[in-house]
Amino acid sequence: MRTAEAFNVTERGVPDGPVMLFAHGFGCDQNMWRHVAPHFEDRYRVVLFDYVGTGGARAPYDADRYASLAGYADDVLRICRDLDLQDIVFVGHSVSSMVGVLAEVSAPDLFDALVMIGPSPRYIDDVDYHGGFEHADIESLLDSLAGNYLGWSAMMAPAIMGTPERPELGEELRTSFCTVDPAIAEGFARATFLADNRADLQAVTAPCLVLQSREDIIASPVVGRYVADNLADASLVVLDATGHCPHLSAPGAVVDAMDQFLKRGL
Q: Which domains does the chain have, with CATH numbers?
């Protein structure tokens, strides 16, 4: 199967321009970038895709391959190489921030910069590290997801979105969660919430922008600061936004921060 078909690749913008590659978060698809990606189409070859099991992707799912985030990073590199993407600004939301880290460490020649929205290299607390969750909390979350994915989605989506004044956004996220096969969602959730990518941060050489909401139950400002402090070349911007999806709830702030970062010159 051709790569573009396998991952439902969509291309817009300047065909021969520098590349901006958007990677969505858990339970989402490329449509989640609709308020941000168009802003860059006059300067970039904008490329969007869906991970296995999401959106319009048709790639076969292999539980062993996708038991860790490395499988998703390999898919990103497949897209980059098969579509001859170079000089890439990689924009990743949530878990895709760490997928981008793994891809950049494996093939630094492909990436000019990383933009990380709500990143976390480890969700579980550790000695001298605050990830935001105890191990038992994560196991309970994963058990709940595995036992009743639709119920878990209805409960968690509004909390993750973090915008009670705009319930339609929480409903959009719930609907998106519910389009993913529960078995695939469970595997992706385990790969996400049990990962530890702290050491990988220090191997990144590309300049990075870390975008953090001022309130986020999934990746707190403390975690955003940790990510920025452990990258060789990083800028941290705390957005005047709440929740884990500022590209949906505060897209203007995300675009402005990206514009300022890109104006630095890469």
A: 3-263 (3.40.50.1820)
